[in-house]
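User: Quick sanity check before I run a bigger batch. Here is a single chain. Can you write out its predicted 3D structure?
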Amino acid sequence: MGTAQALRATSTRFSHAVLLGAFAAIVFYVTRLVPETHGESWTIAAIGFLLLAGTLTSELMSPIGLPHLTGYLIAGIASGPHVLRFLDESTLKSLSPVNTLALSLIALAGGAELDLGALRKGAKGLFWALLVQTCAALVVMTAVFYIARPMIPFARSLTPSAALGVALCWAAISVTRSPSATLGILAQTRASGALATFTLAFVMVSDVVVVILVATVIGVARPLIDPGATFSAGAFVRLGHDLFGSVAIGTALGLVIAAYLRLVNRQMLVVLLLLGFGVTSVLDYLQFDSLLTFMVAGLIVRNMSEQGHKFIGYIEQTATVVYVVFFATAGADLDVPLLRALWPVALLFFASRALTTWAAARTASHLASDPPLLRRWAASGLVSQAGLTLGLTVVVAREFPSIGTPFRALAIATVALNEIFGPVLFKIALDRSRETSREPVASFASMRPPPP
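Assistant: Done. Predicted structure follows.
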């Protein structure tokens, strides 16, 4: 980089820092001296501030190689109720519809990025990775939780059989990954290659596997945790109904989207908003899995029609806004005092899971005869955890109320570490494997029709 370019880059970063400080000072003044502004109108202002703070923070951190998602998370943590208190708990709750929209678009993007032809080519490696990663996580994390139970306040008084049941539930939760973090890094880096393709396919397919796994583990753990309970097949009947219904509705939705893109191809921003808010509400009412439904819809548009490139183009134009709001809100919602209280145990589980993921990835790559690049870096994109994990902890807490609250608290603390460090590891791997695109990515794009 020449001297003039270096000076220009330094000047740009300085202006970003000044702008971020100025807006933070304004928000600080408003939240401290005019507290009655907190309300419905503040929700819109909060979205705007998170967009600005997340974007500027990510730009300031780019020179040291950190992913944009880390900047969004840091901006959210700093703005949240436990640090600068720009956003309080009520404001974060009012942002839940925005997160619903973000998750819907993330699932659509994940499905639309899955190419069945590429999946068939890498089916052997994907099969071994899913098998080895799932089995290794179940065995190792069950053992770690059981051995470490003297360090866990709520597990100390459990009987050996109950502790084993809770350990199995913890291991099942440990199998989850983060589609949102994976897609966020891929959207920033525009990476393409064996590592990017494998990671995206593994993370999206494992979503379906882990939902089935958690339902199975809950059925096995119930008699262990509650001696008066018996194994019931009813949960599997409900699971089959949910999975079949979600896939069926997702297929129909994908065909409708493809037809709309072919016949109308206008006002796609409105269509995406309708999908994110309206369809999700209907799915919640019907008790179907919205993430699986939207993932299948994106898969159908990509692979069963000729409109896939248009659809991906529209989603990419909204990607920056979606990821900034989602991860900045996740950072603001992070329970910093809880993480501070539980950090020794959370760090143990984070390190154990990361090492298990690395060892399982090396083993699976050897069994599948993967290329050297995957043998070295396959584990890097499988560390992150986020919304899916926390959603499944709610299921565990509902099924076992006696340990539900402390179990979820420990999960939140552990997920926080995976959420912070996972994206960094994945971006480093993409950069080192030279799959990151050299083309700059625009911060915000308008909703223009992509080229036919």
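The chain has two domains: 3-94, 99-432.

User: Great, the batch can go ahead then.
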